[in-house]
Design a protein that fits this description.
alpha+beta, three-stranded antiparallel beta sheet
Length: 229
């Protein structure tokens, strides 16, 4: 049965992963049609750039890394690799993290901070050495290249107080096209910012990461999952 490309978010919503060691599935025809041309120089690799203003504590690496780790557990293809046996047999391989700390380390390896402009960020992705590969199907880049700006006050009373500084940032979400489409990236970005800008502290996000890992990744003998999208 053909398994065509699915939006990234649909992976977790329609078929959440069962606890398992390593799972794999063959690509469907549509996924193959995007994968095969991309093997050399990354033709069809996707990106979504978003510029935003935020307080510094929201974009510090520990917080970004936690949010990224949580979402990679929810959407396992983002954390998968690809093995090609033949032109007709190409497979996604997913090895669930062995612990919440392992999930955090994996997210950190696929997260980069830069201090460049928006144009430099995009140009490096499009015209530089390929970012993605069969071992890295997704990548997150955060750039902090603009000076802090005062957040506009909401009331006259607030105008008398010391303004809170927010900084301009650029976020680049990178993913191979055979994982999904542009709409999936936009929906993923919505989930990312919703979690990032939530009132949860770092400790609460760490607790959530542990809960997500327990639900989706904790090893359990006798349980096998085929993630068919």
């Amino acid at each position: 049965m053909d398994t065509t490309a699915q939006p990234v978010l649909a992976i977790a919503e329609s078929n959440p992963p069962s606890p398992c060691r390593v799972v794999e599935r063959r690509m469907g025809d549509t996924e193959l049609s995007y994968y095969l041309p991309s093997r050399g120089n990354g033709v069809n690799d996707m990106y979504l750039h978003l510029g935003f203003n935020a307080s510094e504590h929201l974009v510090q690496r520990p917080r970004i890394r936690l949010v990224w780790a949580i979402l990679r557990i929810r959407h396992p293809l983002l954390a998968s690799s690809v093995t090609m046996h033949s032109y007709d047999d190409v497979r996604f391989i997913y090895a669930p993290p062995s612990s919440p700390q392992d999930a955090l380390a994996n997210a950190d390896r696929n997260l980069e901070y830069k201090s460049v402009t928006k144009d430099e960020l995009i140009d490096a992705y499009l015209n530089g050495e390929r970012t993605l590969s069969d071992e890295r199907l997704s990548y997150l880049v955060v750039s902090t290249g603009t000076a802090p700006l005062p957040t506009p006050p909401l009331t006259p009373r607030q105008a008398e107080a010391t303004p809170v500084l927010s900084t301009s940032h650029d976020l680049l979400i990178c993913a191979t096209h055979f994982l999904g489409d542009g709409m999936a990236l936009h929906q993923f970005a919505n989930d990312f910012f919703s979690l990032l800008a939530s009132e949860k502290s770092l400790q609460e996000l760490e607790t959530q990461l542990g809960e997500e890992w327990n639900r989706f990744c904790r090893p359990s003998p006798g349980k096998v999952r085929n993630f068919s999208g």
